[in-house]
């Protein structure tokens, strides 16, 4: 079985601290990429020749024939000024690993090292994906477009979870993290004198009606077993007290845990915008910006995830879903996969300037993903 020795944990911890001191934003992870390539080379793990902006893809070829599966870590940081008291604070002003991607990176590197050491046991191959630009929801898409998932039969990943203790792994089939989409709507009318409204077509009235009526899409048009949040977060129109403006612009976001719900909502919102505008003699333009799908875990892997955690002495717990998004969802559009929470017992939530985590979790995560890869390849025979 796979064991992260004290020496390896020390080494991975030092590497995590190094990355923490040198954070880089999405698609700017040039130094992180160089470091990862040199660390992989030191261990004799081959890198695949994908033409990526930043990020690295390596592959461990098992001594036995079999399918290829993937483990994914994200490597980018955030534009946040660090406020922790750790000795390895960010050396880059206004940039911080405040989402713990430094932890993901070294944990998956650790899993790769363990798998490489025991590759004679592997019944297939494990592709190791160090993905850039998760925080801007561009990295996974970029890698998929470059063919990184070609030949991959299943993909696994994690996010650290500050509210779970070290040694626990949060597991949930189906929707784990919400889709994140954006929209804007422009209601067009005819501007005019506020005292002579019958000569104008008032877009403020259209927009006002829409803001309240749009909530009925969730309560009246969607399946009882689906759920969603529709939030209108910006409304702009008019610039004085005695003039009816000619347009009003709304913006907002929709979150849901079911792709089926995500598919129907924009059509219903568009229809309601157009018919509301039409009812007042105006028109509406609806624009939907599909940003990030649902992190949707394939239930077929739940059992092997839970038994792997327990087999190596850790605890699988039921995961609470999160309304935050994760671009791991893009891989799951093409390849079945499973995303878990890794307990890190941190003091603060993701993206907080005082975000921190317990580094012992590196051992748990590296051992878990190595064992999971071995077990999945064994089962896929
Ligand atoms: Zn984040
Ligand atoms: Zn993150």
From TrEMBL:
UniProt cofactor(s): Mn(2+)
Residues the entry annotates as binding Mn(2+): 99, 101, 135, 159, 351
One of the Pfam families matching this protein, by short name: M20_dimer
Keyword Hydrolase: yes
EC number(s) stated in the UniProt entry for this protein: 3.5.1.-
EC class: hydrolase
Cofactor note: The Mn(2+) ion enhances activity.
Gene Ontology MF terms: metal ion binding; N-acetyldiaminopimelate deacetylase activity
Top-level taxon in the UniProt lineage: Bacteria
GO BP: diaminopimelate biosynthetic process
Cited InterPro entries: Amidohydrolase, Bact_exopeptidase_dim_dom, Peptidase_M20, Peptidase_M20_dimer
Peptidase M20 dimerisation domain: residues covered: 183-277
Keywords: Hydrolase, Manganese, Metal-binding
Coiled-coil blocks: none
Name used for this protein in its record: Amidohydrolase
Organism: Bacillus benzoevorans
């Amino acid at each position: 079985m796979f064991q992260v020795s004290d020496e390896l944990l020390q080494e991975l911890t030092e590497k995590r601290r190094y990355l923490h001191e040198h954070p880089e934003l999405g698609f700017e992870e040039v130094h992180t990429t160089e470091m990862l390539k040199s660390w992989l080379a030191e261990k004799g793990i081959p890198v695949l020749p994908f033409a990526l902006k930043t990020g690295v893809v390596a592959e461990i070829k098992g001594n036995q024939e079999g399918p290829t599966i993937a483990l994914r870590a994200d490597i980018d940081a955030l534009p946040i000024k660090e406020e922790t008291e750790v000795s390895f604070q960010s050396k880059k002003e206004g940039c911080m690993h405040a989402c713990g991607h430094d932890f993901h990176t070294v944990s998956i590197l650790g899993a790769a090292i363990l798998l490489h050491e025991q590759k004679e046991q592997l019944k297939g191959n494990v592709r190791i994906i160090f993905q850039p630009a998760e925080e801007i929801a561009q990295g996974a898409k970029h890698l998929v477009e470059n063919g990184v998932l070609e030949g991959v039969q299943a993909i696994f990943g994690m996010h650290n979870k500050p509210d779970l203790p070290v040694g626990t792994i949060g597991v949930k089939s189906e929707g784990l993290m919400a889709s994140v989409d954006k929209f804007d709507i422009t209601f067009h009318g005819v501007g005019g004198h506020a005292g002579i409204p019958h000569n104008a077509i008032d877009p403020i009235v259209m927009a006002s009606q829409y803001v309240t009526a749009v909530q009925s899409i969730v309560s009246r048009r969607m399946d009882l077993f689906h759920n969603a949040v529709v939030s209108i977060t910006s409304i702009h129109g008019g610039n004085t007290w005695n003039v009816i403006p000619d347009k009003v612009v709304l913006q907002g976001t929709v979150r849901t845990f079911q792709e089926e719900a995500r598919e129907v909502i924009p059509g219903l919102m568009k229809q309601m915008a157009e018919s509301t505008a039409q009812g007042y003699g105006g028109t509406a333009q609806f624009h939907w910006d599909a940003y990030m799908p649902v992190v949707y875990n394939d239930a077929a892997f739940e059992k092997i995830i839970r038994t792997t955690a327990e087999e190596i002495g850790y605890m699988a717990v039921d995961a609470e879903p999160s309304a935050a998004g994760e671009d791991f969802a893009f891989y799951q559009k093409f390849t079945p996969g499973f995303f878990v929470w890794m307990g890190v017992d941190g003091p603060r939530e993701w993206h907080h300037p005082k975000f921190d985590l317990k580094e012992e979790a590196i051992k748990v995560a590296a051992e878990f993903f190595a064992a999971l890869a071995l077990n999945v390849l064994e089962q896929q025979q």
